[in-house]
Amino acid sequence: MSAPGTILADGEQLPAEVGNGTVLTGFPTGTLKNAIETAGNLNLIQAVVQLTGTEFGVAPPKWPMPASINITNDGYKCGIAKLYGSTYLYVS
Q1: Is the whole model's pTM more than 0.70, yes or no?
Q2: Three-state DSSP class for 52?
């Protein structure tokens, strides 16, 4: 798996094997701000991460997606990940 602009929290280099779960950090910055601090500026309170990888044994046109995805910043709480179409996973 690779994710441009990210760093693996365990210090491993990308691309990396992520079958047992992985924590990405530093994308796009180490700290997301909240809506009050930014007057609701979405560019400062959200992150878009593009994940690229291969899951062996999955034939096209299927797109394997992570089972879950979470923000680990203190004070933030993730909703349940929702799949949109077959290639986008969204967490609010």
Answers
A1: no
A2: strand
